[in-house]
Amino acid sequence: MNQLYELRFTKESKKDIDKLSKERKQKLKKILISQIALTPHSGKKLTGDLMGFFSVRLSHKDRVIYSFDEEKHCIYIHRTRTHYGE
């Protein structure tokens, strides 16, 4: 069985989460626990200014943007809302 990574949230991601609907928060929790915390490499590798970050779709317009540290076995959640600048 895979060991879960520790999840840490930035101030921005906490603000994003506060703005999510109840249903979206439940979906986020499921994604964090069943996907990202188990296999952080499973997200889409980002390029350009976000090189080193990964993304998982939360909804049509919202994404979970995160990075992780293998040595510390820790995942950093940076954003949980739109990547369209809204």
How does this structure look, described?
28% of the residues lie in helices and 27% in strands. It is of the alpha+beta class and 86 residues long. It has one domain (6-79): RelE-like (YaeB-like fold), CATH 3.30.2310.20. The radius of gyration is 12 Å and the shape is globular.
Please summarize what this structure is.
The protein is of the alpha+beta class and 86 residues long.
Largest sheet: 5 strands, mixed
Q: How many angstroms does the end-to-end distance come to?
A: 39 Å
Beta strand count: 5
Poorly predicted runs: none
Proportion of residues in extended strands: 25-35%
Secondary structure elements and pairings:
Elements: E1 6-9, H1 11-19, H2 22-36, E2 44-45, E3 54-57, E4 63-69, E5 74-79
Parallel strand pairs: 1-5
Antiparallel strand pairs: 2-3, 3-4, 4-5
Keywords:
YaeB-like fold, alpha+beta, single chain, 86 residues
